Amino acid sequence: MTTVNSHRFAGFTIQLLLITGASGAVADELTLADRRADFREFTEDVAENYAWPQRQEKPWTTWHERYATAVDSAGSKEAMAGVIAAALDELRDFHAEVRSHHPNRWLPVPTFADIWAEPGRQVARVIAVRNGSDAQRAGVRPGDEVTRVGGVALNAALATRLTGAVDGNDAQARSWALLSLLAGRADQERHFSIRDVRGKSREVTLPLERRFDRNSGPMAVRELPGNIGLIRFHNSIGEQATVGAFDSALERLRSTRGLILDLRDVPSGGDSSVALGIMGRFVHDMRAYQRHRIPNYGQADVERNWLELVAPRGPFTYEAPVVVLVDHWTGSMGEGMAIGMDAMRRATVVGTPMAHLAGAVTDFHLPRTGIDVAFATEQLYHTNGTARQDWLPPIRVAEPVTGQEDAVLARGLAQLQSLLSQSTSGS
Questions:
Q1: Which CATH number belongs to the domain containing residue 180 in this structure?
Q2: How does pLDDT run across 2-55, given as a tens digit for each residue?
Q3: Distances (CA, A) of 331 to 69, 209, 279, 328, 393
Q4: How many structural domains comprise the chain?
Q5: 304 lies in which domain range?
Q6: pTM, entire model
């Protein structure tokens, strides 16, 4: 996966000098030829393979010229990773990132995000706060407004995250910059000015070390009143052991009248084999769950498209009604599972918009510097033709959700009861 982030180039140069100065005389010093060759290869990789070549902004076409000075100045691997990260930021794509991280890097969204907000003309409105996060412990609430970031007025802070290659007035660009600023850098505390719904302002400082409370193990399994099963994944759909744990959970809940799959804590995405293993327990036959598309497949006017299928697996198929819960921390493969269960007509999806991570990611290794880069190389779609990042749950929960009640879970339980009532009346 990936984090794409943007800097105004002058600001990036300052960051680069700080990184280089901190490195001193390091053992991983790179030759100028190595840096130039790998940056050229990186630029060509993006130009030839990026999943969205038709986008209006194509910053990669001028990377070679605009970043030449920074490449020449980046004497260490960390500094060079910072240069490449700054270029990738111009894609405004949280599914693009440098895997070889430098200490001052911007942290990926939604993995490290704990505040979800929407930018307005002068302030940003908080629409969701991650459960068990530093922001929640600091008292940040949906409905609050962020007025300053790091002591800087919101619009000025947003401008520093967007280079001249990006339209700073574009709504998606502003949203990307805001979410990145709220997630912050790996080596810095976060400082925000917050105004609550009563108009009272205060300063909030969030600690350097991010902490997200969750139970140990790949998932939590419960039986709710009314013989309803609930399985909540703990950011574990990238771990192969999760398939076996899910099988055990499903055996325990085999006789329940209905099931809720909670995908609201999978911000880091996961692995297709894990998702296929889970979804395979809900179907009797092969079913398509998403469409892949590679544009410019070898030729500018040739593209490759295919449907990915889920095969049934396991000792039994769970046949009772299913509801899937999603929110902004449903990322990447979690989003794929949500659209898949919907496409296969095996669940009703309930919640808020998801993380909007676009496409399937491929990793690229730059051989001379040893830097690893990842970005989307395939477009992904619901089988109905909707791009995965644009798909919305059929049962929407309005935001911001205020109060203590888990509104998404409450709506999901109501939907499940409705499905059970329909199945009873129809039998």
A1: 2.30.42.10
A2: 333 333 223 333 333 333 433 333 345 789 999 999 999 999 999 999 999 988
A3: 36, 22, 17, 7, 14
A4: 3
A5: 219-354+391-421
A6: 0.89
